[in-house]
């Protein structure tokens, strides 16, 4: 049996056309600026008569849970209602208000406001009138406020957000943490999420492109309009164009579409994420009534037990990782650059696919995946009817699942990066007829919206009796069920499997399970990027309670909270890379953190306690366990030029070769060999006394739009420039120019320091500063000061 999916995908990005006559008002504009915020509940916070002059002015995205708890200098407290799950952060209730003006000239048009995500349970008022309630904190929604606004006058939108009690298994953040938009359209316009583009044919020779749209006709006007659709390449050359006359017949919605052909298309792939652009326009009397600009990627996908996953006809394995939605020291704030950087770092670490656990992401993250070539499993829910906590989504599931699932699929179905829809994770009572029926119903609903991708779910504790639950799924996600791959394939030869979650400590075995079986299409490590919440599962493990405070990170990511690669990432690289790879790590003589004597045997999200430095003063002459992760045939280890022996990388060593080495200050060097010849080296050199501060920015030029970011890494280094990972010093930061500090952090999973201060201690010799751009061009000078060290600075250029 073979499942074939072929689709032309796109992301929507509206703009103003230079062709044809058009109203100068932008169809969609950012609504992020000049909001007012009050932390805590307040009576009649929606009323225009309320004096909000003392409220704090902010620009979105915003997350109050990452900010200091009022009256403290930390976002963490042992008494937090979120406890271990939320990383001891605090939610509660917060209010947002925004005063805005709608020009009198817009009267007669449709006014809408859209939110990409509010966590959670948001009530929205416009001019004292309640417009809507939106519960789920991860789905986007749009509100038609035409009948609520005053044209030619000031308006007020108020949003109350309630993140109360224990309601999620990880850090959620609190507030309007994603982008907002104001939309102004003619009564006849393209419906939001109403355009869907598919390709019945998508090959290197040609693509047959079907662009299907829904026209919203709010005033049920009659008459004729012209629908024009063009596809343009990166050089703005039109590669396909069609138009048709559309007759409007007094309906609120009209379905329209075109079939176009693109010759010799560039196919979107992880190595060549080529994006075309579709321009959809409605014209009447030579005037543009509405238009949408759509970035598109042409590609096809296929899944089968025989050939696994195929992209554009080529079989490939999914080198995957699970990620939560937070952005580390920024909390849940979904800045475009933060989401883009996350994908850049993960791709550089070898990942080609991500499972977005366990909720729909920001549109900014999917846009980054499209541009950079990262495959995505888009996931809807972490629970259905039976939840994990008293206040979680389960209490709303029966009423709201269809609305929220529609939001995810309709919004995201045009992204080339998205290859599967996941309808849930670790669903309770999955072997019962009740839950099997829900699985069948959700799967069927997704297919009413999109038949071009398979439906999946992350399923744990799989037994033979789980078959009924798995039956409606096109592809089956196995959470920690490596032992089922072969036996289930014998019982169900057509079943397509992937490890939807796996353990870092068992990376070798899980990847061999992928390599050795065609029907196992990939492995998704828990997790690719560390996150706040599920505090210490990667060290203390389960069971967990308040006693583990001040732990607040999970401590199980291939990348730490600052985005640096942890040792487990390098072991994974030896499995995924075709090039020779070797990396040296050392087991510290004293555990990196206090151990948990009550850790359960089944809790194995931890990775061996190793570090990648060679600084252990006081242990001279004492034996240290040194490991080399390598995919090469042989490795020879040297200490200060003396060989400690050569080892064969036999299968039983699982790419981890171990030496016992008497500690001596100096240089560890691993030389790797294939077929008797040297193919690479890796070194660890002891750091000397810290002599200076080194600052490096991921980007030294940013956009002066008020939302761009520069990530600046600080390292404490010796005279040779070697980072001293034993150095823990307080750093004071200052900024000169039109920019602000958006966050500071150091990836220490037990630190309860502020993320929003202008100072932070280093941990393992480093910390991270995030600078947010202002709106004027010029130089931004960032200065770092550490006691007894020379002051360091770095210059960022900010341009319009």
UniProtKB/TrEMBL annotation:
Residues 308-472 form the Glycoside hydrolase family 2 catalytic domain. Residues 621-679 form the DUF4982 domain. It comes from the Bacteria. Keywords: Glycosidase, Hydrolase. One of its GO terms (molecular function) is hydrolase activity, hydrolyzing O-glycosyl compounds. Residues 55-176 form the Glycosyl hydrolases family 2 sugar binding domain. One of its GO terms (biological process) is carbohydrate metabolic process. Residues 693-795 form the Glycoside hydrolase family domain. Belongs to the glycosyl hydrolase 2 family. This is Glycosyl hydrolase family 2, sugar binding domain protein. It comes from Bacteroides cellulosilyticus DSM 14838.
């Amino acid at each position: 049996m073979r499942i074939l999916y072929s689709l032309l995908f796109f992301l929507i990005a509206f703009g103003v056309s230079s062709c044809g006559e058009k109203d100068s008002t932008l169809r969609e504009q950012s609504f992020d600026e000049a909001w007012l915020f009050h932390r805590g509940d307040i009576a009649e916070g929606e009323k225009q008569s309320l004096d909000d002059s003392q409220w704090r002015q902010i620009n979105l995205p915003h997350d109050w849970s990452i900010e200091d708890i009022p009256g403290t200098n930390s976002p963490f407290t042992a008494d937090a209602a979120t406890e271990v799950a939320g990383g001891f952060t605090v939610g509660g209730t917060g209010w947002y208000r925004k005063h805005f003006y709608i020009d009198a000239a817009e009267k007669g048009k449709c006014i809408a406001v859209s939110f990409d995500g509010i966590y959670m349970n948001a009530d929205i008022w416009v001019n004292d009138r309640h417009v809507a309630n939106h519960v789920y904190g991860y789905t986007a929604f749009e509100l038609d406020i035409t009948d609520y606004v005053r044209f030619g006058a000031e308006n007020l939108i108020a949003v109350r957000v309630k993140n109360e009690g224990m309601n999620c298994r990880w850090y959620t953040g609190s507030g309007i943490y994603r982008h907002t938009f104001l939309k102004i359209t003619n009564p006849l316009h393209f419906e939001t999420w109403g355009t869907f583009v598919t390709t019945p044919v998508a090959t290197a020779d040609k693509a047959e492109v079907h662009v299907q749209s829904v026209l919203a006709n709010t005033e049920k006007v009659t008459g004729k309009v012209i629908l024009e659709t063009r596809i343009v390449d990166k050089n703005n050359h039109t590669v396909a164009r069609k138009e048709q006359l559309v007759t409007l017949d007094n309906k609120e919605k009209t379905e329209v579409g075109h079939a176009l052909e693109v010759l010799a298309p560039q196919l979107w792939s992880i190595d060549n994420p080529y994006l075309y652009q579709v321009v959809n326009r409605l014209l009447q009397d030579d005037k543009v009534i509405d238009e949408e600009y759509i970035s598109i990627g042409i590609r096809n996908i296929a899944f089968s037990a025989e050939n696994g996953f195929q992209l554009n006809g080529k079989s490939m394995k999914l080198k995957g990782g699970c990620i939560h939605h937070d952005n580390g020291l920024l909390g849940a704030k979904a800045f475009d650059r933060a989401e883009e950087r996350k994908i850049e770092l993960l791709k550089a670490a070898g990942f080609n696919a991500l499972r977005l656990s366990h909720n729909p992401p920001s549109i900014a993250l999917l846009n980054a995946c499209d541009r950079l070539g990262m495959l995505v499993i888009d996931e809807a829910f972490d629970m259905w009817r039976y939840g994990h906590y008293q206040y979680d989504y389960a209490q709303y599931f029966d009423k709201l699942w269809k609305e929220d699932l529609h939001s995810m699929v309709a919004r995201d179905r045009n992204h080339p990066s998205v290859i599967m829809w996941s309808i849930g994770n670790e669903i309770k009572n999955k072997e019962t007829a009740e839950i099997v029926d829900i699985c069948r119903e959700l799967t069927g609903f997704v297919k009413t919206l999109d038949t071009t991708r398979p439906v999946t779910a992350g399923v744990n504790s799989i037994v033979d009796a789980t078959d009924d639950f798995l039956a409606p799924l096109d592809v089956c996600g196995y959470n920690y069920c490596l032992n089922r791959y072969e036996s289930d394939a014998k019982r169900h030869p057509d079943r397509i499997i992937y490890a939807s979650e796996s353990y870092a400590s068992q990376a070798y075995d899980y990847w061999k399970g992928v390599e050795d079986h065609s029907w196992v299409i990939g492995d998704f490590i828990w997790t690719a990027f560390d996150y706040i919440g599920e505090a210490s599962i990667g060290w203390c493990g389960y069971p967990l309670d308040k006693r583990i405070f001040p732990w607040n990170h999970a401590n199980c990511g291939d990348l730490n909270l600052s985005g640096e690669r942890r040792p487990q990432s390098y072991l994974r690289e030896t499995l995924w890379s075709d090039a020779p790879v070797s990396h040296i790590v050392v087991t510290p003589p004293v555990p990196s953190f206090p151990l948990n004597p009550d850790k359960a045997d089944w809790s194995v999200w931890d990775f061996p306690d190793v570090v990648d430095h060679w600084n252990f003063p006081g242990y001279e002459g004492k034996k240290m366990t040194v490991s080399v992760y390598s995919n090469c045939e042989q490795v020879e280890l040297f200490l200060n030029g003396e060989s400690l022996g050569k080892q064969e990388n036999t299968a039983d060593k699982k790419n981890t070769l171990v030496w016992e080495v008497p500690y001596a200050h100096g240089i560890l060097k691993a030389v790797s060999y294939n077929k008797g010849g040297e193919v690479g080296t890796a070194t660890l050199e002891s750091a000397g006394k810290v002599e200076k501060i080194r600052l490096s920015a991921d980007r030294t030029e940013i956009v002066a739009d008020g939302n761009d970011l520069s990530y600046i890494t600080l390292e404490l280094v010796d005279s040779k420039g070697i980072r001293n990972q034993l150095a823990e010093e307080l750093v004071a930061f200052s900024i000169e120019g039109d920019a602000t500090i958006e966050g500071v952090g150091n990836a220490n999973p037990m630190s309860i320091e502020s993320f929003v201060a202008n100072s932070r201690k280093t941990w393992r010799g480093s910390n991270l500063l995030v600078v947010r751009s202002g709106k004027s061009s010029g130089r931004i000078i960032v200065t770092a000061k550490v006691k007894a060290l020379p002051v360091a600075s770095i210059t960022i250029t900010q341009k319009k």
